[in-house]
Design brief:
The chain is of the alpha+beta class. Helices cover 29% and strands 21% of the residues. It contains 18 helices and 23 strands. The strands form four sheets. Strands 5, 6, 7, 8, 9, 10, 11, 12, 13 and 16 form a ten-stranded mixed β-sheet that branches. The longest helix has 20 residues. It starts with a helix and ends in an 8-residue tail after the last strand.
């Protein structure tokens, strides 16, 4: 079947207007084989180091420093490295937005529409354990997939929230140094990759998505501190969801400005976004001084504000080894905050933090909101007064003794510990004032306090340093049959002379999960939901 018969007529007409002489080349790209991507987890291995011992052929993706084209027939999703979070499988063009956002260790970073986690995991890895990542997803089902990917990657300093952008904007005014908005869109850029996206498309979907995007981008800008940077991206070609959304932002938030994207290796693959003059020539134009309820019109207009929208970039499948994408880098000007906001350096909730501080000075550590809205860790006042996070000195000793075995010399900051009915969490620094949100994760889950012992969590295993050696680790090779057995949930035999107790099971030094050794038999502690 010819491509013109496989794609919606209205979509083809819009693309012909946009692309002009390139239209035929664009259509021909639909018959080319898709290229698949792999992005290395920089928390666990350097890109160059991974190249040296990669189990399959790699080819660098030009617009990333840790992304590679990979042949799907080599089944990278079935290799134990994938289970260990050594890499993430991601569409090549989708790697660009997180690469373009200039995240530095120590930043406060928000991924507003984060599921399934491809961009959030890269942002979290670039923080290198410092600062804070808030990964949000409004869909509960998709948020669970996001949570799993954050945990597999071993990101310690992340919160995972299940909230609307409007709700977050109320709680985080001018709070974040960096914000990524990979907006929900009509998905036209994925037509080649996924035929189901074509089936789900209809002409009105473009404007429906644009209405949502106009709200989201303003809310995202309000959460950005002065001097901070924001990336807006979609995987669609429609100007209504791309350039015209930027125009809407710039007309409604004068403190926001477009800045050039440091293309570097992507210069040969990226193409400038369209100017408003070009869109007008093609029949796409925004109403002058457009506002949220005005909508967009395809009728050309004579006058409009003309910011240089061409500083954003488009990724076209006929110009690169990837699918369609749109990305823009924006900055909030210094000294032009959101009206009515508090200082950008103030915590989220001054009242909550002052209350917490008073309780801490009185020797009490407050319970933090748990995984669901309105819930709190409740263990009784008598527990809370016993020590850090409501732990007795004996319980804290169990935790320190266990962690010392796997993290020798570590200095456990007990002020960051949170105890929720025996489930112990390590909170990211600076999050004491965050309350009243729906969390899927509000800290690194360390494990459970049992009678006279501490049992570690899977999430802790994935957050431990890769490549470290020690008697507390059992490192298997990918070819060892016991590696597959472990990932299937089976107990495995350990024949060397070791003491009984807990061990971290690794593949080539990369953590997979826990096991408990007794008499040469390692009982599998890998979570059921993590087993192959």
């Amino acid at each position: 079947m010819q491509i013109e018969q496989r794609l919606p007529v209205e979509f083809l007409e819009a693309m012909e207007r946009l692309l002009g002489d390139e239209y035929r080349e664009f259509l021909d790209s639909y018959d080319l084989p898709r290229r698949n991507g792999l992005r290395v987890n920089r928390l666990k291995v350097g890109a160059g180091e991974f190249e040296e011992h990669a189990p399959f052929a790699l080819e660098r993706i030009p617009w990333t420093d840790n992304g590679y084209y990979v042949d799907w027939r080599e089944m990278p999703a079935r290799h134990p490295y994938y289970n260990a979070g050594v890499y993430y499988l991601q569409e090549p063009s989708a790697m660009a937005p997180a690469q373009i956002l200039p995240v530095q260790p120590g930043d406060r970073v928000l991924d507003l529409c984060a599921a399934p986690g491809g961009k959030a995991t890269e942002l979290g890895a670039r923080l290198d354990g410092r600062g804070l990542l808030v990964a949000n997803e409004i869909s509960s089902a998709r948020a669970r997939a996001l949570l799993r990917n954050i945990e597999v990657f071993g990101i310690r300093n992340a919160l995972v929230t299940n909230e609307s952008p409007a709700r977050l904007a109320e709680r985080f005014p001018a709070y974040f140094d960096k914000v990524l908005v990979d907006a929900p869109c009509s998905g036209e850029g994925m037509f080649r990759k996924d035929p189901d996206v074509v089936k789900a498309w209809y002409p009105e979907k473009v404007n429906e998505c644009a209405a949502v995007q106009r709200e989201i981008i303003l809310q995202a800008a309000d959460m950005l501190r002065p001097g901070g940077y924001m990336v807006y991206s979609t995987c669609t070609f429609a100007p209504e969801e791309n350039e015209l959304i930027l125009l809407h932002l710039l007309q409604n938030r004068e403190e926001m400005e477009l800045v050039p994207i440091p293309c570097e290796g992507g210069r040969e693959s990226f193409r400038p976004a369209y100017t408003l003059h070009r869109l007008q020539e093609c029949g796409f134009a925004a109403q002058p001084n457009d506002r949220t309820d005005a909508g967009f019109s395809h009728e050309p207009v004579a006058e409009y504000s003309d910011p240089d929208l061409s500083m954003a970039v488009r990724i076209w499948p006929h110009h690169c080894g990837g699918e369609g994408h749109f990305t823009a880098l924006l900055r909030k000007k210094d000294g032009n905050g959101v009206p009515g906001q508090t200082s950008m350096t103030e915590p989220l909730s001054l009242r909550a933090e002052r209350k917490d501080r008073k309780r801490e000075e009185a020797g009490k550590v407050p319970g933090k909101a748990s995984g669901r809205k309105g819930a709190a860790g409740r263990k009784g006042k008598e527990r809370q007064s016993q020590g850090a996070a409501g732990l007795s000195k004996t319980e804290l000793g169990y935790v320190r003794e266990f962690l010392e075995r796997f993290l020798p010399g570590m200095d456990l900051d007990t002020d960051l510990l949170e105890n929720h009915n025996g489930r112990l969490y390590l909170s990211p620094e600076g999050t004491a004032g965050i309350r009243g949100l729906t969390f899927l994760r509000n800290g690194l889950y360390l494990g459970d306090l049992k009678k006279n012992r501490f049992e570690p969590a899977q999430e802790l295993a994935m957050a431990l340093e890769a490549g470290a050696q020690g008697e507390a680790r059992i490192s298997l090779s990918p070819e060892d049959a016991r590696t597959a057995q472990y990932l299937h949930g089976e107990s495995i035999r350990i024949d060397d002379d070791r003491d009984n107790g807990w061990y971290l099971v690794c593949v080539d030094g990369y953590p997979l999960g826990w096991g408990k050794l007794a008499g040469g038999q390692l009982k599998n502690k890998l979570l059921l939901s993590w087993r192959n």
